[in-house]
Amino acid sequence: MDFSLTERQRAVRETAREFAENEIEPIAREAEETEVWPSEVWEQAVDAGFVGVEIPEEYDGSGMGAVESTLVSEEFARIDAGVATAIGTAFGTRMIDAFGTEAQKEWILNGVATGDLITAMANTEPDHGSDASRIETEARKTGNEYVIDGVKTFVTHGTIADVVLTLCRTGESGHGGISALLVETDRDGIVVESEIDKMGWNASETAQLRYDNVHVPEENLVGEEDEGFYQLMEFFEAERVGIAAASLGIARGCLEQAIDYATDRKQFGQPIAELQAIQHKIAEMAVKVENARRLTLDASSRLDDGENPTKLASMAKLYASEIAEEVASDAIQIHGGNGYTRDYPVERQYRHAKIYQIGEGTSEIQKNIIAEELL
């Protein structure tokens, strides 16, 4: 496959790289340590068209494809994956674009693209993570509205979102009884039950939400009733490719940091880059990064071609997320004691890397999917 980029894609990559270096890098450490959402950088990202990269132009989005989205995610995460997540506020927009009514698209897609709206996605529950078919949050239909009761956890942007796309049980147990509902966070009965302290991604707000007799109108139903699980499944490939892109960014950034450090750092009267042990480690890191890039770009291009590359998306997500942690760990090793301090970005990126082996389906789930596709 030809992995060369078009002129437009190269321009997107360069613009994203400049934004990451000029806007994200100066505030990355402070945002992580203070755990304050970087609203100013988010506003700049909105103005630059990096929020809602794939939202269609008719709704004020950038109208780009999966490859461009991958390039942006890689460049942002290369500098800091935590801030990259913090300013990515287009959660749930793929489902709205595919299954939403025209009124929902104008409300959500336009709002996200212009920065008037921050969305979140609520699927995971305290007792149900990987097995999304068993969610218990209930939405009872009463007249022309739904009444929601339940708890959702690990909701990214749960404390700052204006609208949460919430997966609820509306029918019998199993895959076929789940619906997607748009829930405004200023409705009575929806509260932030707790803010979640995390290992990394601390610039990005994460919360547990409680729904206590929350009333939403029936026009907030996205797509068909009882079809929410199947609607969600249609976008797991794209979401997993997004995880792969961010993981790739972490690995690439850590590789570059390791090369720079090894070139400058002197031990035994010479730069440590001249030591064969360091050279071998850097070579192995580079091979992993290149393999992750090819898998991720291949999956991205297939999404743009209209395919549903289930196996390839899971392979990209599995491999890229695994090597992100490995490369970040090797980068810390090359930095020696300095790598264990907060003075160098590799420490922060190492902490960020772990979540990518968990989110959007754990590594173990990806292996199940790949095996099922093969067998």
In short:
The chain has 13 helices and 10 strands. It has 375 residues and is an alpha+beta fold. A hairpin with an 8-residue loop joins strand 4 and strand 5.
Secondary structural class: alpha+beta
- Indicate the mean pLDDT: 95
What is the general shape? globular
| Biggest β-sheet strands, sense, barrel | 4 strands, mixed
Report the end-to-end length measured between terminal Cα atoms. Answer: 25 Å
Order of H and E elements: HHHHHHHEEEEEEEEHHEEHHHH
Q: Count the strands?
A: 10
- In helices, the fraction of residues equals 40-55%
> In order across it, which strands form the biggest sheet?
1-4-5-8
Strand content of the residues, in percent? 15-25%
Low-pLDDT stretches: none
The radius of gyration computed from the alpha-carbon positions, rounded to a whole number of angstroms, is 21 Å
Q: So how many helices?
A: 13
Structural description of this entry:
The chain is of the alpha+beta class and about 375 residues long. The strands form three sheets. Strands 1-4-5-8 form a four-stranded mixed beta sheet. The protein has a four-stranded antiparallel beta sheet with strand order 2-3-7-6, with no helix packed on it. The protein has a two-stranded antiparallel ribbon with strand order 9-10. The chain starts with 6 loop residues before the first helix and ends with a helix. α4 (about 65-80) runs parallel beside α9 (about 235-265) and α11 (about 310-335) runs antiparallel to α13. The protein is about 50% helix and about 15% strand. The protein is built from 13 helices and ten strands. The model has no long low-confidence stretch (mean pLDDT about 95). The relative contact order is 0.12. The protein has helices at about 5-25, 30-35, 40-50, 65-80, 80-85, 95-100, 100-115, 230-235, 235-265, 275-305, 310-335, 345-355, 365-375, and strands at about 120, 140, 145-155, 165-170, 180-185, 190-195, 205-215, 220, 265, 270.
